[in-house]
Amino acid sequence: MFEKAIDKSLSPWMESDLGKQLIHTIKQQLHLLLPHHFGFYLVQCGREECTHWLDASPIQEKIILSHHPIANVSKKNIIYCDFQSLPFDSNSIDILFLPCILETQAQLPALFEELWRVLLPGGMLILFGLNPYSLLGLKHLLIRHKNEFPWQGRFLSSHQIKKWLLQSNYTIEHTDYFSFHPSLTHLEKCKHDCYHRLGGLYQIIATKQILSLTSIKPKWRLHLAEQSLLNPSSQS
Q: CB burial class (10 A; 0-12, 13-18, 19+) of residue 153?
């Protein structure tokens, strides 16, 4: 649907069997989720080399953000920007999608606050992260010195991400885990908690909820009510 924003191919790891499985798993989950959600604007933050992830959404305006300099600024629907200072009005975006970018982002609480600012009330945040408590996470500890995705970042647990989201006034709607390591594919149908702890990829869905104001009875009405009780003869 979209042209690539920058002149680069997928990283060697993304073209590996594990990388391809990650790409496929994310696409598969989005194709189950996105067709049921409507609106005006859907924004993907990062992983601009995978623009096809948004194809299943009925939303017409699909925007992809890149934190890399754009090779051709005329490319449609691709914006180069700082993710912590998004070029959108407050309360303007229906769905925000973060595909495995938290591992390389600094100041995540501030990032979640910025995402909350641009989301519409009731808007949805979809994020995928790499699970440190998995075989992939173990491998990350062994080769984290490599300067390529996904090894160059820090793997953050879903528990920590949800903690930050709750502190930023999101409501957690759903959390799920997926294993894209070939040696663990037999666990895909397993619903036991041990499977969730082994899944190399997790998905968190959160929404922006704004609490409604509770109506408070004016003090002057309370005062009049008290007066009528003290002076019943004043009533006609």
A: middle
